[in-house]
Design brief:
Helix content is about 5%, strand content about 45%. The chain has one helix at about 60-65, and strands at about 5-10, 15-20, 25-40, 45-55, 75-85, 90-105. It has a five-stranded mixed β-barrel. The relative contact order is 0.17.
């Protein structure tokens, strides 16, 4: 068995561009920047950035297009894919990460969420009533119980 799995955590280099395929399915594409730090031969700290082309389809693309913005961090899991096409008799190539799942990165204090409420500052603990977060990517918004959970009530 072979494995084609990519895990990235970085910042968006541009807002997601949302388009529709002829069949009506949504496609989002954007760039993601990652970096690494290392020491060179002289022992000096170096930083190297890498830029990735990201593509998402369907409901995932819609949510990404709605909530992600340039500069915001995101965690992406997917697979690597290289497409090719002919342009003026010259073969062109593009390597992309096709998103399987993703998570929103932390939101900066004072930055506005997609729902319109401001995010709490990092010194405040967010409450369920005031901290508005975008819904989970592939489904409904998570509903948490209002009462505390008693460990004795857990069946295992």
């Amino acid at each position: 068995m072979y494995l084609n799995k990519v895990t990235l955590y970085g910042n968006l280099t541009r807002d997601p561009e949302l388009k529709a395929l002829p069949g009506g399915q949504q496609v989002a594409s954007f760039g993601l920047a990652t970096n690494r730090t290392f020491k060179n031969k002289e022992g000096q700290q170096q930083e190297q950035s890498e830029f990735h082309n990201i593509v998402a389809f369907g409901r995932t693309a819609e949510v990404m297009g709605q909530y992600l913005k340039k500069g915001r961090p995101a965690y992406i899991e997917g697979r690597i894919q290289t497409r090719s096409w002919d342009k003026d008799g010259v073969k062109q190539y593009r390597t992309e990460i096709v998103v399987d799942t993703f998570q929103f990165g932390p939101q900066a204090a004072g930055e506005r969420s997609g729902g319109g409420s401001s995010a709490p500052s990092s010194s405040q603990a967010p409450s369920r009533e005031t901290a508005e977060q975008p819904p989970a990517f592939g489904g409904e918004e998570i509903q948490y119980p209002d009462e505390e959970i008693n460990p004795e009530d857990i069946p295992f």
